[in-house]
Amino acid sequence: MLQRMRKHFDAQEELREKVLDVSREVIRLSARAIAATHREDQSNADEFLAKSRDTLATLTEAVKAEPHLANSGIILAAYQEYGEATLVRALIRDGKLLTPEELSIPYKPYLAALADTVGELRRHALDLIRVDEVERAEQALKLMEEIFELLMEFDYPDAILPGMKRKQDMVRRVIEHTRGDLTIAIRQRKLERTLKRAERGK
Fold this sequence. Notes:
By secondary structure, the chain is an all-alpha fold. Helices cover 83% and strands 0% of the residues.
């Protein structure tokens, strides 16, 4: 009996270590994909995402073999980071919001990834403001607001959807800050154009 029990828990420990390594690799590749997306380096973004997706597939197989892992933080973190990277790429490149089914990830990490995507869209909007592409920055803000409206539909306690209320509050603050930054940029642009017209009129 002792040998059977030790064998069972040894296998559990070995699987956990393997899953942890794979999860870390998914998270690393996803972070690199996001960075490449912001650099507008589409080739590398696609490559990192493809590797992340393939690596994530091994986690999916582990969950099939050991269903109790499905809601572990290790698994959910990998799904969330991959989901965020893929959403960021699709939103910035195509203005398209992918569904959980298109990403092949569960609902909980999808919603968490969607909330975190707003922070990346703010970064994108600020990058656009710096190069005076205010109209595109406004489009990014609109996407952020649409995501926020979607997230607010999920008014569930932490027992059902852990951390969602905190993320909703975070998204609201990020949008408010971005709206303020964009308002300042628009006013500054109008002022500069007014001054230029005045100079030409002299």
